[in-house]
Amino acid sequence: MQIPRLGTKIDSSEYTDLTRVVSWFILLRWIAAVGVLVTLVFVRFRLGYPLPYNLLYSLTGVLCLINLLFTLYYVVIKRKNLARRELAVFLHVQIISDYVLLFFLIYFTGFLENPFAYFFVFHIMLTSFLFTSDIVLIYVSSLIVLFIGAFLCEYFRVIPHYLLGHSMDPGYFRLYLPRAIGLCATLAISAYLITSIKRRIAEKGRRVEVELNRYKELDRIKSNFILQVTHELRGPIAAMNGYHEMLIRGIGGKLAPRANELVHKANRRTENLLQIIDEMIDYAYMKSEEEIQYTKTSLNVREIIDYQLDIHSGQAIQKNIELVSDCPEDLHLHSNRDLLNIILSNLINNAIKYSPQSTTIAVNASAVTAGAGAAGTVHTDKEAAGAVHRGAVHRGAVRTGAVYAGKEAPEVHLVVQDQGYGIEPEELEKIFEEFYRTRKARELERDGTGLGLSIVQRAVESLGGRLTVYSELNKGTTFHIFLPAGGENEQNSDH
Amino acid sequence: MSKILIIDDDLDILETTGSLLEYEGFQIHSADTVDKGMEMIDRIAPDLILLDVMFPEKKTRGFEAAGEIRSKYPKIPIFVLTAINREYAFDFDKKDVPADEFINKPIKIDRLVKLIRNYI
After folding, report:
1. What pTM did the predictor assign?
2. Residue A4's pLDDT band (boundaries 50, 70, 90)?
């Protein structure tokens, strides 16, 4: 038997639909059984037609039994999880059994006299919906052969004709031959219509898919291009940076104070350029997120914070900003190193850029449970809501109790706190938007992509964490980040 | 005086990194190709090697070179220099490269000196 084309195109979604179709068929069959039974009782006791009731009750019983077997097979044995081939076979078995049972029910209740003979049209429509046209053709022609064959057999008295009613309609054969032909034509036409409509929809689907693939490919090329270019840009900047450092250290001869100042300025712009390039790289990567695998390893949080403070120390010294840190030495996090670095680097960089001279920036980390962390944020949130010039924004899943293995999930709570200029309450909502820069940021620093915090937010989300920011004008800004600590029994499947 | 060998095809990086480290009191030798660098290791017996990753002949020549150096001179610490500052942008696993440290370009000289002092 040819394997029907089940869900070969838009695989998963169509496939899920088909498994749902099976459940639906089973439900419909129960309803049909009840319907048949009610109709039989009605016909017997209200209309009093002389039909072979015991036989018909038995057929209904067989219908129920078969449906029970289907349910057992599908729900209990296979747990609604069938391979595509099994699913196809299962659907065929159901369709054939439905056809046979319906045929007998109709045959024993007057055959073509019975108006319910047209129920075959629904069956053929469903079959056409599920299978390819060649298979539908086999079903339709078998049904037509069965109908015409049975009709002829009745005519030649090979099999008896069961009456629907009290006496044989004398014109039955003359009258019902056109009806048999009409039914057959209806079956063939419905099958044709459904299969051709389905083919057209599938064609359209294929075209959409081709387009989609083309766009995906273009997007990939674009991302690759950005990555290539930006990596290339880092080379010349590295050299420029080196020469600046040489000049600042007086390796090319002692600089006059003015010259020293100029070199510092040049160096600051170079640092900004590097920051922009890094943001573009991270942004390009995160935009093509489904392709990257963020491998998680066990990370020593203290080491990463120290590394970040170290690479930002030059920038901080120039503004006489003190970088302090409080983190237990053995605090570990099962997470992605790049993303953690990206989060901290962006936040520390912002803190330095948007803080006045001679202030302090604190980068702290501690272990908490999800519940404790949430309680903490609620408290500060209330506090924040009370003050006019304060604001708070929460990002990420509000998981007040990420529970697994019956325990509250351990988390690592990172805090980056500055004594900077702060963020206007009405701007606080927008800082995570792509390319958004606050008025103050634009005023203080010409360069910037406005991508930093949206990258931070994406990185936090990719790690399954959440993020909260509090800010008070001219007092400072504090970012709280809660990341799942992870570990062996981690059930977080974000990536 | 500790001897450091820098292998990088970018002459400006050789000049700047070299000068900055010299200023910090190291004796610097530089090579602009891996082959020249390999040849110099024998001759000058450096205490530490700074090795770039991308060379014109091959994008990951530096990683191969790190393997070659490590197998021939297992005691010399190797610092790999790379302009790629995100692990996910690498086409390889860091664990497969026998480097003692990975240094991002642009080099933060203070940090580099601190790391070098951990090894020599």
Report:
1. 0.62
2. very low
